[in-house]
Amino acid sequence: MSVKYKLLIISTSDFEFTNIKCTSLDKEFDDFEYCHLKSVNRTFKYISLKVRMYKIPVTRVKVNFALLKKFNGYKPFLYNITTDACRVLKYPKSNPVFGFFHSLFAHHSNMNHSCPYNHDIIVDKLPADFVNTKFTKILPFPVGDYLFDSKWIVNDINRADVQVYGTLS
């Protein structure tokens, strides 16, 4: 009679924001009122940003987003996708990868409906532990330093860049 043993390894990873950079590339179209990383204490950090939209309604939005991992500088890691954000927000199943990345901030943002956008864009107090759940439980990623780079293209003109840096340990 043979005895089979199962080895259970429990891995706990922890995601932490390290920086955020927001750049308006067309100050007549939009500008960032604020864009910051707030550290409440050693274990609780969140990011917030507000984009003032000067030319509304916004009806044609593309987003290029890339996930980069630090290997002697930031190098492409898994994803570099450009998608029609208005279409994906209307039909979420049309691009599940964009849907995953949108779900990282959708519950903390007013960017949760399809186009047109007749208001400023806000991401309010997105906590690192919310992102941690997505990066470790839903879709596990290897430990390391990451950069989520997004370019917001409206009417075929790149209007803003948002870069979120983080560490998964």
UniProtKB/TrEMBL annotation:
InterPro entries named among the record's database cross-references: DUF1091
Pfam families: DUF1091
Alphabetized PANTHER family for the sequence: DAEDALUS ON 3-RELATED, DAEDALUS ON 3-RELATED-RELATED
Name of the featured protein: Uncharacterized protein LOC117145744
Native organism: Drosophila mauritiana
Gene behind the chain: LOC117145744
